[in-house]
Amino acid sequence: MKRNSLHYYRDLILVLTQKELKVRYKRSFLGYLWSIANPLALALVFFVAFKIFMRIPIENYTLFLIAGLFPWQWFSNSVNSSATVFIGNATLIKKMHFRHEVLIVATILNDMLHFILSIPVIILFLFIYGLQPNVLWIAGIPILLIVQFIITMGFSLAISALNLFFRDIERIVFIFTSLMFYLTPIIYSEEMVPPAYKTLILSNPLSMLFISWRNLFMRGSISFGETLMALISSLIVFAFGYLVYRKLRWRFAEVL
Amino acid sequence: MEPAVTFHDVYKEYPFYQHITAGFKSFLFHLPRSIASLKKTRFVALKGISFEVGRGEVFGIIGKNGSGKSTILALTAGVMKPDRGTVATRGKISSLLELGAGFHPELSGVENIMLNGILSGNTREEMLKKMEEIIAFSELGDFVYQPLRTYSSGMYARLGFSVAVHVNPEILLVDEALAVGDAEFKEKCNRKMKEFMESGATIIIVSHDMPAITELCNRVAWIDSGTILKIGDPEDVIEAYLNFLGVPPDRGQNESLGKSVAPDTDHHDSCVITALAMESRQDLPLSEVSGQELADHNTRKPQPGAHSWWDSPVIMHQCEIYITGDPEISFYEYLKKEYSIAGLDKGLSICNKLKVIEQNFIDHDACRSFDTFDPMGVLDNVSQGIPLLRTDYYDLVLCIDVLSHMSNLGGFLEQVRGSLKHKKFIVAIEYVGPARFHYTEKERSIAGMFLGAFNGRYHLSSSAFEVAARSSANSEPHPELAISSDIVIPILRNCFDIIAVRFFGGPFFDLVLSKLLGQFDLTNNKDSMLLRTIIHCEQVLIRHGILGNHYALIIGVKR
Question: The pTM is what?
Answer without folding.
Answer: 0.58
